[in-house]
Amino acid sequence: MAPRGSKNISFATFNLYNLQLPGVEWYKSSYSQAQYNAKISWSSKMLALLDADVIAFQELWSKQCLIDLFEQAGLADQYQLCFIKDKWYNIAVAAAVRKPWTVINQQVHKDFPSGITLNKPKSDDGEDDELDIQINRFSRSILQLSIGHEEAHSPTIEVLATHLKSKRSTQLRTSNESLKLHQEAIGSAISTIRRTAEAAALRVLLTRQMKETDNPVVVLGDLNDGTLSNTLSILTQQPPFRMYEASRIGYRNDVGLYTASILQQMRSTRDVYYTHEFKGIQEVIDHVLVSEQFYDHSDQRVWSFKEMRVWNDYVEDNDKSTSDHGVVCARFIHDPADK
Questions:
Q1: How many of the other CB atoms lie within 10 Å of CB of 132?
Q2: Distance between CA atoms of 43 and 331, rounded to whole angstroms?
Q3: 191: alpha, beta or left, given left = phi > 0 and alpha = psi -120 to 50?
Q4: DSSP 315
């Protein structure tokens, strides 16, 4: 743990794998007290390993579960816990912020930003490209925190805790037999369309935060897509990375987000990074995305990237007391650019 007063900072994302109170239903299932105790015990040990300043959580079913988790870990007095609201149903995101970092402001985004529609009228260029998508809210609310430092002057960091629509095929719930035959294809297409729409809406929120400002911005969470996916391309706006010292690439990028997994790969010869396995495919879908204030080569740099770690040894075990996602933590050193 960084010494108190340090302006170094670390960000983590932790999918809790349907953490719900014992005896309370989740997806037509429930935990016994023993199963709940096992989940809390394992997750509390993971919190200690993470040793992170800011943690975004996904798949939390009850506010009390997170309180129990931090009490079990002996960390309740060190962190401020943040929720989308006092009570909710179904899975939700949450966050924890460790002192001396403190939450200055909190807001929740359920509806897409005002004025954002995903439609395109038919054009006269001969292409049948008309489009009208009736999606105007996030499947899981986004939690945005404005974070400052209690003891030292530091720019306010905007942190967005997210969980985008999964790749799992959306259930059509239809009596149409011809549609049932193609449930997997159509349902997967619907999930992809929703996730892409959510990525676009989140990108609008980000651009409004970042455009022509020096605001540090961090996106944390289960984005349900890989580093080189269209979802990540929309969110990050694909900023170029500097590959050699004499290059001027990375000098400035007002709205781009840098993916911590790529920053780590540029530092390491290790080629096995994954946070999730689905149908035999291992990939990073749990991400830490950071603005130019966290990029080493930016003249707007406030922090330099130190390392990213992924805990994933348990992912293939299919053990409900652990998680089906790897846990990710990225660390940054306070290192303002000379201007």
A1: 9
A2: 20
A3: alpha
A4: G
* Token pair recorded at residue 318: 């299919």
Peptide bond before 336: cis, by omega within 30 degrees of 0?
no
Mapped onto helix, strand or coil, the DSSP state of residue 34 is helix
Per DSSP, the three-state class of 5 is: coil
For residue 305, what are its two tokens? 């990237």
Residue 333, strand partner residues: 304
Residue 332 CA: distances (Å) to CA of 123, 224, 297, 303? 48, 24, 14, 6
User: What span, in angstroms and rounded, lies between the C-alpha atoms of 137 and 44?
Assistant: 33
> HEC states along 236-279?
HCCCCCCCCCCCCCCCCCCCCCEEHHHHHHCCCCCCCCCCEEEC
* Structure tokens belonging to residue 13: 């994302």
In this structure, are strands 101-111 and 137-149 parallel, antiparallel, or unpaired?
antiparallel
pLDDT tens profile 188-226: 999 999 999 999 999 999 999 999 999 999 999 999 998
Q: Give the closest residue to 264 by CA, choosing from 251, 275, 273, 252.
A: 273
Pairing of strands 92-98, 79-83: antiparallel
Return d(Cα 291, Cα 206) in angstroms, integer: 10
- Of the listed ranges 82-91, 115-124, 152-161, 197-206, the least confidently predicted one is 115-124
User: pTM of the predicted model, to two decimals?
Assistant: 0.91
